[in-house]
Amino acid sequence: MISEKLQSAINEQIAMELWSANLYMAMSFYFDRNGFQGCSSWMRKQAIEETEHAYEMAGFLTKRGGVPVVEQIPEVTNHWDSPMEAFKNVYLHEGHISKRIDHLLELAIEEKDNAAQDFFWKFVREQVEEEATVSGILDRMKVAGDSSILYVDTQLGQRQ
Ligand code: MG
User: Fold this and answer.
1) Which CATH number goes with the domain that contains 145?
2) How many Å lie between the centroid of ligand 1 and the Cα of residue 47?
3) How many domains would you assign to the chain?
4) What is the pLDDT of residue 148?
């Protein structure tokens, strides 16, 4: 049985994963209306992945005798000045998520919940990949500059 403390922290994180999904969906719409179909498709996949994280966390809670809930999700931003600005926003946001996951792991350690620790380690590793991927995209955008940004857009459209 999971502790009340961990249950409410995981439910908060479920809301945060859904907020992330909404942010990336908003970015997908933004890219689509500005002619960056590759970036739009990349963000759409990213939004789906975040929704899956919420489902994974809910499934874990249920297996451990807890009750997952969907809490209120605050509104997200819908406007960015450039593709680069949107991806910078993603990078900052993923850094914030990494800190939250670290905090969840620390809480699981405090609560002496080994199963929860094991569960959160997967997300610690996931965040390393997320941050590296977005940082790599930003690097490519910087190298490409405004004139070759559509080349990066085409590459991002190839995400599986
Ligand atoms: Mg996530």
Assistant:
1) 1.20.1260.10
2) 9
3) 1
4) 84
Distance (angstroms) between ligand 1 centre and the Cα of 49 equals 7
Distance 147 CA to ligand 1 centre (A): 32
Task: Give the Å distance between the CA of 90 and the centre of ligand 1.
Answer: 11
Mean pLDDT, all residues of the chain: 96
pTM: 0.94
**Nearest Cα to Cα of residue 133 among 151, 104, 160:** 160
In which domain, by residue range, is 19 found? 4-156
Spacing, Cα 58 to ligand 1 middle (Å): 13
The answer to whether 72 touches 15, Cβ cutoff 8 Å, is yes
Are the C-beta atoms of residues 108 and 116 closer than 8 Å to each other?
yes
Rounded to the nearest angstrom, the distance between the alpha carbon of 51 and the centre of ligand 1 is 8
Distances (CA, A) of 47 to 41, 62, 131: 10, 23, 15
Per residue, what are the HEC states of 113-157? CHHHHHHHHHHHHHHHHHHHHHHHHHHHHHHHCHHHHHHHHHHHC
